[in-house]
Amino acid sequence: MTYARAIAPLFAAALTLTASAASAQTYPNRPITFVVPFAAGGATDAIARILNDSLTQTLGQQVVIETVGGAGGMIGAARVARAAPDGYTILLHQVGLAAGMTLYPNPTFDAEKDLIGIGLVNTSSSVITGRKALPPNTMAELVKWMKENPNSKVAHAGVGAFGHLCGVLFVRDVGATADQIPYRGGGPALNDLVAGHADLSCLSAAVIEPQVKGGNLKAYGIIGKTRFAGLPDVPTLVELGYKNLDLDFWHILFAPAGTPRPIIDRLNAALRQALTDPKVKDAFTKAGMELYPAGQDTPDIATAMLKSEVKRWGDVIRANKITAQ
Questions:
Q1: Cα–Cα dist 165/162, whole Å
Q2: Quick one: 167 and 201 in the same domain?
Q3: Is the domain of 130 the same as that of 239?
Q4: Prior bond to 210 cis, omega within 30?
Q5: How far apart are CA 304 and CA 302, in angstroms?
Q6: Residue 224 has what pLDDT?
Q7: Are residue 226 and residue 164 in the same domain, yes or no?
Q8: Inside any domain, residue 19
Q9: Residue 279: per-residue pLDDT
Q10: If both were cysteines, with which of 83, 168, 274, 291 could 54 make a disulfide (CB 3.0 to 4.6 Å apart)?
């Protein structure tokens, strides 16, 4: 009896490993849910849709996008963190995931423990954008206007999302004050900006480009390392002297922690295949999104990057006393 009790845990572990191996060999054999943690119409949603057809084709099963917005992307992330670790629920997320670990005092999950990286996707530029009737036409004029109008409204995709952090740091660095207005994603924030219900926002360059060219919005400055090809006359904030506003807006694909490594590798291979697809590459290029260099496409690098970004943005949030209120 003692011997039987002693080997029972080992036997159970062996069965689990065997089941996981069998599952990985047949994966995938049903549709995969691709969670986007922001409302439709924003940058994360756009990236998911660029990738979706290629992932579906490579994996041989339908990849179904599910938008789960709210709390700066934390509600959707929690949905995936609690999902079965079987490869049938994956998550596309951005800077807001790393920031949320510090921003929210009692998160319902731990991103570093409950999620595992599948692969790095891209970085992209964002733009300080204004409603079309906003009086300033240049960044210098905007800064002067903001100082004269301390209750200007800055719309963002949700507390802790990149657009929120970008907006807070921008307002701080230009020496102004403003009201930060949260939405359930970049899409709703964009809609209210176009409608004139908000004054400013920090939004994806790719998303706002047609609105700027159509005369519905004004673009004041690029948040990123280089100018955006779609709006070549808009300078970077670094060019304008704001050295702290060279910020990366990244996206990473995740799965629940505990997902068998063969399944993670299968998903990583599908992601790498998508990122080399000419149609996908062309869509990213036109959207001003940069892919990571070859050699940075492993699950381990994606997981390590999340860890470093949690620390980086945690330091920013604490230093600037940013809260989820």
A1: 5
A2: yes
A3: yes
A4: no
A5: 5
A6: 83
A7: yes
A8: no
A9: 93
A10: 274
What is the C-alpha to C-alpha distance for residues 42 and 24, in angstroms, rounded to an integer? 33
Residue 92: per-residue pLDDT: 98
The closest of 282, 84, 300, 96 to 185, measured between CA atoms, is 96
Could you tell me the two tokens for 288? 């001003």
Cα separation of 89 and 255, whole Å?
7
Q: Which domain holds residue 84?
A: 32-123+249-319
> Which regions of the chain are under pLDDT 50?
1, 19, 22
C-alpha 198/C-alpha 180 separation (Å) is: 10
In this prediction, residue 157 carries a pLDDT of: 86
Query: Which residue shows structure tokens 């191996």?
Result: 21
Asked if the structure places residue 2 within a domain, the reply is no
| Pairing label, strands 217-223, 126-131 | antiparallel
Are 259 and 117 members of one domain?
yes
What was the pLDDT predicted at 42?
Answer: 85
Q: Is residue 12 part of a domain?
A: no
